[in-house]
Each structure stands twice: as C-alpha cells, then as structure tokens.
Amino acid sequence: MATATQHTGKLPAARLSAVKRRAQELGLTPAEYLQQLIEDDLAVSAKAKSTSLDELAAPFREALAGVSEAELDRRVLAARARRRNGSPMRRR
C-alpha cells in the first residue's frame, strides 16, 4: 500500500498533521484513512448520480416538517451570525 505522503502530495504540514491525528482517532493508518475518504467520496458521488433530488431531499423535508418559513429564516440567520462570529455551531 502507498504511504500517506504519496496520497497527500503537497499538502501543508498542518493539514498532514491533522490527517495523521484524525487517522489515529479512528484507529487507522493515515493511508487507510485517506483511502476510506476516497472510497466514501466515490460512493456518495455514485449515489448522488443515481438518486433523484426528491429522494436526496427527503430527510431534510422530514426534519423541517411543520417548521414555518419565518422560523426557518430565523434559524438560518442565527446560524450565519454564529459562523460570522466564530461561535461553534450548536444543535437544537
């Protein structure tokens, strides 16, 4: 198997360090972690190509069922404000 360095090319040192740290958190080698990311990305891409937008959006419609447009606008604006201010996103 190729090494993580071969997979990352010219990735900045800070990013490479983050890859190594995340791989360790998952109990994987950096190369295994990168391979998993690639395989997951290809699977998501294949699903997106073979699934209708209506099917892909169904979980969002279900999660937002009964939420008014005004409430949705309020949530979006609040999330944007938190992101602008650097506050961590919190789940409701």
Q: How is this structure best summarized?
A:
The chain is an all-alpha fold and 92 residues long.
List keywords for this structure.
92 residues, mainly alpha, 5 helices, flat
Number of strands: 0
Proportion of residues in β-strands: under 5%
- Give the H and E element order: HHHHH
- General shape: flat
Category from helices, strands and their pairing:
mainly alpha
Q: What does the largest sheet look like? A: none
Oligomer: single chain
Distance between the termini: 42 Å
Helix content class:
over 70%
Q: What Rg is obtained from the alpha carbons, in whole angstroms? A: 19 Å
Low-confidence stretches: none
Average pLDDT figure: 87
